[in-house]
From TrEMBL:
InterPro entries: LysR_HTH_N (IPR000847), LysR_subst-bd (IPR005119), WH-like_DNA-bd_sf (IPR036388), WH_DNA-bd_sf (IPR036390)
Protein's UniProt name: LysR substrate-binding domain-containing protein
Pfam families documented for this protein: HTH_1, LysR_substrate
Native organism: Achromobacter spanius
Molecular-function GO terms, alphabetical: DNA binding; DNA-binding transcription factor activity
Length: 300
């Protein structure tokens, strides 16, 4: 028979209080029942653990030997209980979070410090990739959640929450004559465009192509790229103009000017969503979602 944690707790209480009566009162258990429980414990161990005397109850040598291990067993049992509870509540464990590169401009710096402060025992494992690749990793259970741009293909197994909205702006080489004020997208219709690779970044590609069509033209593509930072670098290199998220201004460069568009459809044309499995068992994901959504409400 194995030792019972309840019996160990009773044994420690009697030894520390030096009395069956005081222990029974502290544990809120009838004294006869407490005596029977200790007898069963001694039977399991095979030796006498406590002895009554004129000055109360004291430990035998065997009882003293058991005492330290009994305290350690209760401590580890309580730690295990707390750990299991905290994992279930999302306060302990690991969160594998994927993200697109542009999430590093404002979104991650805005939310992650608060999340880490509230849940310091959650280990964050961050992985940067394209929206397409992140969706593949999510479906393959290689990550627990992803911050992606644009709507994913309809998938009933996934849930998504918009955590950042942004407008499209125009990135121009610094010496371009249109720098300095708001412009209509149609004014650069004859310019070469640096565009997002449709197979790797379908969300941004689709939104930018649609905005150009609404402005009355199809962009003449000079170069394709995957990361927003790369698009900006190619604009700086004189390979064309580009439509980029407004947050890109946070990482300005002297070789590129960012210009607001007067086109109404450019306003809040973009979104980054937190995406995870519909029935996720990763509680830290839900904690991160709550942090993001609650902070948005506080700012609204």
């Amino acid at each position: 028979m194995s030792l019972d944690l309840r019996q160990l707790r009773q044994f420690i209480s009697i030894a520390e209080l030096g009395s069956y009566r005081r222990a029974s009162e502290a544990l809120r258990i009838a004294q006869p029942a407490l005596s029977v429980s200790i007898q069963k414990l001694e039977h399991i161990v095979g030796v006498q653990l406590l002895e009554r005397g004129a000055k109360g109850v004291s430990l035998t040598a065997a009882g003293a030997a058991l005492m330290e291990d009994a305290r350690r067993a209760l401590f580890h049992a309580d730690q295990a209980r707390q750990s299991a509870r905290r994992v279930a509540l999302g306060e302990l464990g690991r969160l594998r979070l994927g993200f697109v590169g542009s999430a590093t401009y404002m979104l991650l710096p805005r939310y992650l410090p608060t999340f880490r402060r509230r849940y310091p025992d959650v280990e964050l494992e961050l992985r940067e990739d394209s929206t397409v690749r992140l969706a593949e990793m999510l479906r393959a259970n290689e990550i627990d959640a992803a911050l992606v741009r644009g709507p994913l293909a309809e998938d009933p197994s996934l849930s998504a929450w918009v955590v950042e909205r942004d407008s499209l702006i125009l990135a121009l080489p610094a010496a371009h004559p249109l720098t300095g004020g708001r412009v209509a997208l149609q004014s650069v219709r004859s310019e070469p465009f640096v565009m997002y690779a449709p197979d790797k970044v379908p969300g941004l590609n689709g939104v930018t192509q649609a905005l150009c069509r609404k402005a009355g033209f199809s962009p003449r593509i000079s170069q394709e790229a995957i990361q927003v930072q790369t698009v900006v670098s190619l604009v700086a290199s004189g390979l064309g103009v580009a439509l980029v998220p407004g947050v890109t201004r946070a990482y300005s460069t002297p070789h590129v000017e960012f210009v607001d568009l007067s086109d109404e459809d450019a306003y809040e044309a973009l979104a980054i969503s937190l995406v995870t499995h519909h029935d996720t068992s990763c509680a830290p994901v839900l904690k991160l979602r709550d942090v993001m959504l609650s902070m948005d409400e506080d700012c609204s």
